[in-house]
Specification:
alpha/beta, TIM Barrel, five-stranded mixed β-sheet, three-stranded parallel β-sheet, 12 helices, 12 strands, globular
């Protein structure tokens, strides 16, 4: 099962960078999202795949035509929050208000219920099990916020096998589609999105894909934009953000030509949820 997803945000929606931290700073940058999203749509359609587009409510408010086009082309529209803030930097009330606002604007544009969510930076961490409970409160049925490995913005090495699972929350059960992992030299690595995909050689990505029974991708429009402005970032962030941009789209095009991808909505129908692992959310996030 290979699942294709895109996080629809602009090139300046970087986390933990002071000059791009909030909406107040975003107005200082020229948008590049229209052409970049158009390129992803064209590539996905050309290969005949389904995909889930996790869209920022902020993008939807400013450029509703982008969300409308994604929906009219038959792709699943999902929430990626409204203001692209890390979950653990918000209070429970702030998170709920942000989630509600994103769902509202996306549903107004598409006329369809938003059922799927992904947290910015996969930032579910210990101590915020309330975030998963809030998703259920606002009608979210499927989540893709768990990063089952060590990560700067969170991550759960104790999550278990990276596969579709059921999160047992105080308010009910949430279907979880975590980021997938590949195994190289006895270690688990991420290969299916963001900087990892850009940095790894294609032969390795192909090999890991062929060995996997579950692949969850996560791409951003900026991952394929070699001409985006370069911000003055710390050296390690500069490397992660800009290395490999020139060959990334060619790599994606080849990957999509060699494999079949579906969206999360379709994957939900294929998973045997009665047999899926059950994860106690309060144990995981407390």
């Amino acid at each position: 099962m290979n699942i294709l997803t895109f996080d629809i945000e602009d090139w300046f929606h970087l986390l933990d960078i002071e000059c791009t931290a909030t909406e107040a700073e975003w107005c200082n940058f020229k948008p590049r999202i229209h052409a970049n999203v158009e390129r992803l749509l064209e590539t996905t359609l050309r290969h005949g795949h389904k995909a889930t587009f996790f869209c920022l409510g902020w993008v939807a408010e400013h450029y509703p035509e982008i969300i409308r086009q994604i929906d009219e082309l038959g792709f699943e529209v999902a929430s990626h929050s409204h203001r692209h803030q890390l979950v653990y930097q918000q209070t429970p009330q702030q998170f709920r208000e942000d989630l509600k606002r994103s769902i509202h604007v996306l549903e107004d544009i598409t006329g369809k219920k938003i059922k799927t969510y992904r947290a910015p930076g996969f930032s579910f961490v210990r101590g915020n099990s309330w975030a998963a409970e809030a998703l259920l409160e606002y009608g979210i049925e499927r989540d893709s916020s768990i990063f089952p490995a060590e990560r700067g913005h969170g991550g759960y090495e104790n999550f278990g096998r990276a596969q579709p699972s059921v999160l047992d929350c105080a308010g009910g059960k949430l279907k979880e589609f975590p980021i997938s992992l590949g195994r190289v030299l006895g270690k688990n690595i991420v290969f299916s999105g963001g900087g990892y995909f850009r940095l790894l050689p294609y032969w390795m990505i192909r090999s890991l894909t062929n060995r996997a029974d579950y692949v969850m991708t996560y791409f951003h429009p900026r991952d394929f934009d070699a001409d985006q402005p370069v911000l003055d970032l710390p050296l390690h962030r500069r490397f992660k953000s800009y290395v490999g941009l020139r060959g990334a789209h060619r790599k994606l095009d080849q990957w999509l030509s060699e494999n079949k991808f579906i969206d999360i909505e379709t994957a939900d129908q294929l998973v045997d949820w009665d047999s899926a692992p059950l994860v106690e959310m309060r144990t995981l996030l407390t």
